[in-house]
Amino acid sequence: MIRDATFVDWPAVDRMARQFRDSAAPWIAYEPARFRRTFDALVVQEHGCALMLENGKGILMAIALPSPFSGELVAQEIMWWIEPEARGRGREMLDAYETWARAIGAMRCGVTCLDDRTANLFARRGYERAELAYRVY
Q1: Across residues 111-118, what is the average pLDDT?
Q2: What's the whole-model pTM score?
Q3: What domain of life does the UniProt record list for this protein's source (predicted)?
Q4: Which of 5, 31, 48, 80 has fewest C-beta within 10 Å?
Q5: Among 131, 4, 113, 115, which residue's Cα sits nearest to residue 59?
Q6: Could you tell me which of 91, 67, 120, 42 has the C-alpha nearest to residue 17?
Q7: Does 50 reside within a domain?
């Protein structure tokens, strides 16, 4: 089951954010208080999304904002983590994310990924590659 996250989910979200940073994105400086404020805002904002996989085994957070180019509402995933033992549930979470985006009137739905396996899931779902991102330390 996937449901809207609530404030009481914070301990699980914090744990998953740390795991995400440690295993997938070590370049991210994690500031728990700042991230807590972001999570809390997404839980209550009309254009904020925080979806929780049952038993605290996954989180998908997103926000929808008007495009600076067209003004259309565009949804963008901010963080997505599924515990290793619950992997394979990504399609369900993606369904819930897309449903939320359509419900608020988003014209586009964006996701990011760090590996080919996830990129292949997105491609099978009809997502098109939009950009390549680079960073310098």
Answers
A1: 82
A2: 0.89
A3: Bacteria
A4: 31
A5: 4
A6: 42
A7: yes
